[in-house]
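Q: My collaborator sent me two sequences in one message, no labels, and asked for predicted structures for both. Can we handle them in order? The first one she listed is below.
A: Yes, handling them in the order given. First sequence, followed by its structure tokens:
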Amino acid sequence: MTLLVVGLSGCGGRDTSSLKSSIIGHWEMKPNNEYNQAYKNTHFYISKDRVIQVDDDGTTTEMKYKILNTNNKKNTIMVKFIDPSGDSEDNILKFPSNKERNKLVETINVNGVEPTVNQGDDLSTIESKIDAMGDLTQDIPWKFVDDKQKP
């Protein structure tokens, strides 16, 4: 019995007691439509003050982040990601519920991004592509992988 208790206490586990602590760890993006496939196999390693992004091609980018706002009722966090050049992007991370913290959806702003227009596309096809982009945001699902904060 003592061995079991020692074994369980050694497991520790991830702190999901708050929205801020729930984002700590290793996450993988799970693109869900043709417009966000560029994020396929993108991993994020999040610590208390840094994010390391590892893209599908192995490119690694270390960024700072700042939590701008949390909303416990909506299970959302507004995060400012700051890349090494100082450019920043404000994104919303949303958990499904206050009990389910192993997946989330990142809403990114895609203002200024143009839909891919192929030679021969008629106006209605182009308009359909613009409509498919919606309100110029894109929701990308993430899945929690493990507690690692570095690749």
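Q: And the one she listed second?
A: Here it is, processed independently of the first:
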Amino acid sequence: MFTPYDFQDKAVADARAAIAAGKRRVIIVAPTGSGKTVMAAMITELARNKDKLVLFLANRRELVFQAQRTIESTGLTTGRGRVRPWGGNPDRFDADVLPAHGPGGAYT
């Protein structure tokens, strides 16, 4: 497990407050190297603690793999899948989190 920086704790708290206030689309904007994947893992862990489902989407396979490693460092399990715009099932549903990317770079 990792120890977040104060600014990461604040960003996650602000995102959670926005969601609690009824916002449905929340984005955390931060520079390269600031730990956005770590913040996503923090939010994922909090969501799973409330039995919420989590789908982590990224536009590149490398970002999906990075997210898998970071999320797994929290003790959660990750599946492996791809998003199919025409429907169909991802490879696994039995994981805490399903990191995936779209059909432009889908992997098997």
